[in-house]
Amino acid sequence: MRYWFVFFLLINLSAKAQSVIKPDILRGDTTFSIQGENYSGYVFPAKSKVDIDAEQKGRFTPTIDDIKAAELALTHISKHPQIIDGKKMYGRKVLADVTPGFSNYKRQYVGYINVENQKVLLINILNFKNRTEAKEYFKNWEHHFIMGFDGFYEYNYTDFRFNLSTKKMEDN
User: Fold this and answer.
1) pLDDT, tens digit, for every residue of 41-87?
2) How far, in Å, CA of 128 to CA of 168, rounded?
3) Where are the alpha helices (DSSP H) in the chain?
4) Which of 15, 35, 107, 167 has the most CB atoms less than 10 A away?
């Protein structure tokens, strides 16, 4: 009888320990899913193979606090685009269907150390409003880092770089 009590006690304790994992992050094979109040996407850990167009000394895995700081800066950009030649520019691009905080765009987050030893968070934003086209052009976006330049990508994809050391967005 005593063994059954110990057995049930251990089962109960192990179940409680498993419920400590935060509900807003889910682990995948190589990426982490993250869900915020007005954003969702995937974090690519330092060990994942991602080809980015930046001089870098290394990689790091972004934390929730890193992402929250960058998302706050993105909210400001979405509400205050630059007007160039009568067009609203978000960073270096004219984007389709921009909502406050780019809440209708999915995210991909990659952390790297720049040549000045500063932590930078690279944020890809991907417009999924047209789901049919998004499925085609952003295929396997949960595990493959997306880069694109013409056609569909021109108005439905861009990236931003948030310097976590200076707390500022950088020009791409």
Assistant:
1) 999 999 988 888 778 999 999 999 999 999 888 887 776 666 656 66
2) 27
3) 2-18, 64-79, 131-137, 152-156
4) 107
